[in-house]
Amino acid sequence: MPRDAPFLIWDDAQTLEWSPEERTALAADPELRWMLEPFPPGVHTRPEGASPESQTLLVLWSYNAAATEVVFPLREPPYYTELVIRGMARMLPGFGGYLDRMPRAYVDGGYYAKTRENRPLIGPLPVAGAYVSSAYSGFGIMAGCAGGELVAAHVMGATLPDYAPAFAVWRYDDPAYIRRIEACQATGQI
Length: 190
Hints:
This protein is of the alpha+beta class. The chain has two domains: 8-99, no CATH class; 121-183, no CATH class. It is built from four helices and five strands, in the order βαββαββαα. A three-stranded antiparallel sheet has the order 1-2-3, with helices on one face. Strands 4-5 form a two-stranded antiparallel ribbon. The chain is globular.
């Protein structure tokens, strides 16, 4: 992948490609059968490292969005590398060539922090002088600059945009908002 390749994200759900033999084996195993089900959107990649000699790619997919207990060190999910490569092969078919001989991969990261409704927290906290810009659920690289501008407006006492309350911590004090969250728990998205 060229070092100047853009950040790419596949924003469609997908069902992974498996050979007939693999499909049969997965279907027969109750603990692995989930790999035959549709996967959520979001597999993404970009080159890592500015050096022209670099061969490193960031390839990520948070296909399991279930809430989990935080543990350290982070456990690498079983089959993660293969599932991510299969997911990438839909967008970039050349990734399919790695399935016969898996590349050396490592997990260097952590948890995607998100709110129940997957809307970031941006603005003042209940502690005077404390502010937050977090819970971007993996979209911080794309939304973090706008979040920073919103936090700066709060800090400076500037006029806030009309959408600022949608990201405020105190939104959870609104019973109508909580009812909307509870009505949308199947997807986690409002």
